[in-house]
Amino acid sequence: MRKKVSGLILCFALLFSLPLSAFAANQVNTMDIQAVIYEDGSMYVTQVWEGDFNEGTESYIPMNAPDYLTISQLTVSDQNGAYETVPEWNIDWSFEEKAKKCGIHHTDSGYEICFGISNYGQNRYAIEYKLDNVIGAYSDRDGFNFRFVNDGMNTTPTDVKVEIRLADGMPITDEIADIWGFGYDGQVEFSDGAILAYTESSIYSENYVTVLFSLDKGILSPSRQEPGSFEEVKETAFSGSDYNDTGEEVSTFEAIVTMLLSIGLPIGLIIWFFRMKKKRAEKKRQRFTERFGYFRDIPNDGNLSATYALGRLFDVCEDGAILSTGMLRLIQLGCLSPVETQQIGLMGKTKETVSLRLVGSNHSSMNEYDEYLYTVLESAAGPDSTLQAKELEHFASQNDKLLRAYIQKCENAGRTWLNQKICLKRWDMPAKLTDLTPTGKQELGELMGLKRYLTDFSLIAERGVKEMPIWRELLTYAMLFGIADQVAEQMKELYPQISVELTDYSGSMAAAYSYHYLLYSNMKQAEQRREQEKRSGGSGGFASLGGGGGSIGGGSGGGTR
C-alpha cells in the first residue's frame, strides 16, 4: 500500500518538474557521495558528479548551515585536473574567470559551494570538503539529520548514491545504529559496514536526499553537545513522512483524492504514459507468443516450480500463485479433503461453508514441497485436523515467514532448473525478452503458448482427445495463470462426458483458491506490518518521499547558474 501512495506522490512531483527535466540544458546523470565521520563528529564529504553541462558559468551547492557547521578543506577537480580554491567567490565573474576555480559564497542562510563549469560538454567533477560538528551528542544517542542532496535543483541528478562510514573503520550495523531516509524513491540500508542510501528511480526538483542517523553512545566523542534528545530530532523528521503510516485503506483513499483534486487531468496523462509503457511491453510479449503459437502440452518438462519462476519474471503469474496450486495438489493427492459444514449465522440463518480436513501425509507421491506445505497446514489446523477460515487468518498473520518460505522454496527450485538449462543471461524483475537465451525463449514460449491456448480454449477448432488424459494438469496450470474458472467452464461445455468430474474438480479448485487467498492476504499484511515496524525502528528499508524536516547541511536549490 505504501508503494501505491508513494507512486502517486512521485507522479505529483514528476508533473511539476517535467518542464525542467525535459528542457534543462545541464544534466547530472549520477551523483556518488562518500561521507566519512570522524570521532569528534566532523565529516569529510566527497561528491562525484557525472553529467552533461552546456550552459551557465558555474555549479553550486547551497548549504543552509547553522553557525556551528563550518566548512574547510574545499577542493574540486575534473577529468583534466585540480581547480584553484579562491578565498572569496564572486558569482558575477565571467565563465573564463570562474574556469578551473572553486570557492565559498556566503549567503544569509549559510553558504554555497561553488565551482566553474570550465568546459562545456560531458564532465566529471569531484567536490571534496570537510564539515565540522555534523554529529550532535544528544542525551540519549549521538547522530545527525543531514540533507545530502537539495530539493529545487535545476540540474537534478538522475541517480544518487550516498555511502556513510566511520573513519576508524568500525562497521556501522543495525546493532549499534538506526537509519532512515527521506525525500526520494529508494532505499536506505546497512551494507558492508556502512550506511547506503540510494535512489531507485530518477529524482526531480521536488525530491531531496536526507539521511537521519543515530548511533549508540560511547562510539564517538562529538564536539557538538546538544541539550535535548535525539528522539526529538527524530519526531521532527518523521513529521510529514510515512514512517508512522498505519497502512490503512483510508490513508490511501485520502492520498488519491488529494492528488486528483490537486492536479486533475495532468496526473491522468502521467498514469496514461506509464500504462502505455506497460502496454508496449505486453504487446512485445504478445507478439512473441503469437510467433511461438499455441502449446498444447505441459510446459517446462512438467516442472511447475519452473513455470512459476519464469511466470513471475515475465509478469504472467501473480506472487504467491504457487500456494494455491500447492493446496490443489494436496487435494489431488488425497491429503486434503473438502468438507461441507453448516453454520448458524445471523438471524438464525444456516450458512454452508467448505472446510479442508487433513487426511494424512503418508502418501508416496508427495514431494518435499508437498510435505512442507502439509506440515504448515497441519500446524494451522489444530487438534481437530480441520482448516477453518478464522484459524487460517490468525495462523497466517502470526506465521507469515513459514508461508513465504514455501513460496520462495518453490521459486528457488524453479530458478535452479532454469539456471541448469541456461535460460537467462541475467536475472531482472520483471525480465525482458532480451534477457533470455534461445533455450529460455523456448521455455517461455511453452509457458505463454499454453496460457494463450487455455485462454482461447473454446475458440480453437483443432481439439480432440489429446487434452482428455491431462485435463487435471491443464487446470492446475490454468490456476497458476489465474484463469482456472473460465477454462473449467469451457471444458464442461466441450467435454460433457467428464462434466461430473469437472464439477467436482471445480469445487476443489474453489476451495484451494479460497484458502490460498486467506493465507496469502494475511501473510502479505503481516509482511507489510513487519517491514513498516522494521523501517520505522531504524533498521533500514525503503525511504519516505516526505518528511526529514529539521535537517542540517543542504537546503533548497542549487545546480548551475
TrEMBL record:
Organism: Anoxybacterium hadale
Domain of life the protein comes from: Bacteria
Name under which the protein is recorded: DUF2207 domain-containing protein
